Amino acid sequence: MLKNQLATPQDYHLILSIWEKSALATHDFLSPNDLDFYKEQIPKFLDHVELRVWSIDGQQPIGFSGTSDNELDMLFLDPEKIGGGYGHQILTWLIEHKQINKIDVNEQNHRAKDFYLKHGFKIVSRSERDGFDKPYPILHLEK
């Protein structure tokens, strides 16, 4: 059974490890320099979201999510667990318990974009560059 717990600073090493593995597997559109740039940026955001670590039976960590208000700011899974239904369970829980109805997703991350669209989110706008003014278009989704 999938469980979650609020993350603490002691979990940050685990979270960053999951982020890096997941980003390497799903963000192949990023240049190596930009991947390093984002790796440096991610820790700065961890204290500004409601951060949850997701695990199987509370034992095996498989991913993390970060939310603020009604927006999903980050959702990353261990790449070995992608496609196993865990993302669906996490997103469903976040929609039901945190009233998540907004998500931004990289346009080039086709798998994530399709995942959110299958869950009833719609593209409401597009930004040509990301929040760091990098050339990675962002799709703004709402439910």
TrEMBL record:
Keywords from the UniProt entry: Acyltransferase, Transferase
- What is the protein name stated in its UniProt record? GNAT family N-acetyltransferase
Record GO terms (molecular function): acyltransferase activity, transferring groups other than amino-acyl groups
Concerning PANTHER family, the annotation shows: PEPTIDYL-LYSINE N-ACETYLTRANSFERASE YJAB (PTHR43800:SF1)
Query: Organism, per UniProt?
Result: Vagococcus coleopterorum
Q: Where is the N-acetyltransferase domain?
A: 2-143
Source organism's superkingdom?
A: Bacteria
